[in-house]
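Incident log, entry 3
Record: CPBP family intramembrane metalloprotease (226 residues)
Problem: checksum mismatch between cached and fresh output.
Input:
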Amino acid sequence: MKNKVNYPAIITFYIIAVALRYLATKTPLLDAVSNDFLRVVLRGIGPAVGALVAFSVFRIKPVLSLKGNYKQLIAPFALYWVFPIALICGIEFFMKGSISFVAVSAILVYGLMEEIGWRGFLQQELKSLPPIVSILIVATLWFLWHLNFDLTSSNLLFFGIIILGTWGIGKVADTTASLLAVAAFHSLNNLFSELNGLKIMILVILITTWVVSLIIRKRYFKVSLA
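Fresh output:
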């Protein structure tokens, strides 16, 4: 466990994350980008760039990786990326005769860009703080990063979701140490921002499959360490 919080690294990370978010969402900078996939990813790239700069400048060794604590990269990739893409696109093709492969993939990559920063960097840098304090700091900075300061009930609800997500995705990070896993959980909110009966069914299948796999994995590690 870390003995102290590296505040200069966190400040550096956050300034870069917010600056790039502002450029991507509050200026016409991305108007010249015609590729929809790239446009989506660039809107969320700030936390990843900020984290990578902080890792490099302050010589911090990342705790999370794409593979995490799985033996092979294929395991988290298949479970958290191939499975949801195949499930969503398969059902969509069966129901509508179309496939939103690019859109679903873009949302997952967008989530990965954010999670390199929020869980891959910030959560790890705040490990020495009490859990509730760490959760509130990460949630608040994550919420403010969206640059949406309207005093509305929906925005207050969004902040509540951010707090819950910070706690839940943080648990996923602690269990798997995999950026692919946390990115997948992160992306659920964007994939299912508008719900209907079919989307609820897909969401339940994904969450149930992933939560069961996490429970099994956590118990497996307890047994292997005993």
